[in-house]
Amino acid sequence: MTDTPWIKVSVVPKVLKEEHSARGVLVSYHVAPHDVPKAVRGGYDKSTDHFVIELRYLDCESFKSQKLDEYVTLRLGENSKRLLGIELNIKKFGVSRVGFMIDSESLKERAIEKLDNAVREFEKHNSPGGVQYGTAFQVVKNEQDKLMTESALVGA
Amino acid sequence: MVVIPFLIPLVNLVKRKIALPWFKEAQHEVLDLLRDAGFSRSPYKGTPLDHHRITLFRYQRFCWKRWPFFDAFLVPKLRSNHLTQKMDVVFRCPDTGESVEGIAGRAFRTGDTVSVVGLPDASSGDISESDIQEYADSTFVSADWVRENQPHARSYMGIPIRIGGRISWVLVVDSREANSEVALNRIAKRYSILFNPFMRFLENMP
Q1: pTM of the prediction?
Q2: Which end of chain B is less enclosed by CB atoms within 10 A, N or C?
Q3: What is the ipTM of this complex?
Q4: Tens-place pLDDT, residues A1-15
């Protein structure tokens, strides 16, 4: 578990579908408030040696892990299948070292690249209409500079 | 073993009857705050309280108001303000999904916030058959249900409420105002702010 502070996010729930009738009735569907992340944080989990991004929603829920590839594991809500977290196996990134210092910029770039690839692959197999992952991934993307700081990535 | 299914609703009924008065008042207070967030300001200011209501429906596997009693239902438990407190409408939401009823059922089934605006006035006797069908199709009930209940509401919003990741409640806003999009958006926004105390109420509600 990480102990970094939560970053509050304010997301306007996305319109999913709108149906207009000829007589002027409008039926619309939005992402529900419980499916929109309210806060996000990132930190190094020393017990697993993974960099972990966690998302917080209105209600709490336990998670199940789903490994996407050797670098990325998703934490999905046990009941809702919402995205509750992303684990990045930083040690497997093969990042170059400058002396004894880790090249943090290259580490961050690799982390973002691996995450993007894994998310793209995951979204291909999880079509819209089920759980809405787009909003959660967008929150992580928007906040990636604050989440993936040098000290957070290497657990310093 | 046979009596156990009958004991559960009985125990729930007893718990409900002995719930502390302050607890129920607090629950009402939250619903009133939500209602006011949407409808106490312009352009709805000054309209009667019963014209814009918020009702909480609970998902449960038993309801004596509809036969067969053992199925899946969305049962009204609490309504904002002090008027129209008689809540008889129970919606069915079976596991098959296809035959879920009402805005509450639709929000439960999709897991999304569902809103409907611009409905025809179904409360008057001179509504046309095509308007009845339009109302029924847009609110996910049968035309017979509309004829029988003659609902006053002309716009709705259903918000599915998750507790521990499961949808176990649905909050339904109904308004006699056909064009209440502004108010519905205000309520949807305020819901997230008010939710933390609200969740504790729902978790402990008998």
Answers
A1: 0.86
A2: N
A3: 0.85
A4: 667 899 999 888 888
Taking the CA of residue B70 and the nearest CA in chain A, the distance in Å comes to 23
Q: Output the CA torsion sign for A41, B165, B30, B15.
A: negative
> What are the chain A neighbours of B113 within 8 Å (beta carbons)?
13, 29-33
Contact B27, B19 (CB under 8 A): no
| In contact, B109 and B89? CB cutoff 8 Å | no
DSSP helix/strand/coil, B151: coil
Question: Residue B137: left (phi > 0), alpha (psi -120 to 50), or beta?
Answer: alpha
Contact between chains at A33 and B192 (C-beta distance less than 8 A):
yes
Q: What's the full length of chain B, in residues?
A: 206
Mean pLDDT (whole number) for A40-51: 87
From the number of C-beta atoms within 10 Å of its C-beta (0-12, 13-18, 19+), residue A117 rates as middle
B105, B74 contact by CB (below 8 A): yes
Residue with tokens 């814009």: B52
Separation between Cα atoms, residue B167 and residue B105, nearest integer Å:
11
Does residue B15 carry a pLDDT above 80? no
Task: Measure the CA–CA gap between B36 and B108, rounded to whole angstroms.
Answer: 24
Q: Compute the distance between CA of residue A107 and CA of residue A96 in angstroms, rounded to an integer.
A: 8
What is the band of A103 on the pLDDT scale with cuts at 50, 70, 90? low
- Residues A37, A57: Cα–Cα separation, whole Å: 5
Q: Dihedral sign, CA of A91, A94, A100, A105?
A: negative
C-beta atoms of B159 and A33 within 8 A: yes
A99 has a pLDDT exceeding 60 = no
A28 contacts B115? CB cut-off 8 A? yes
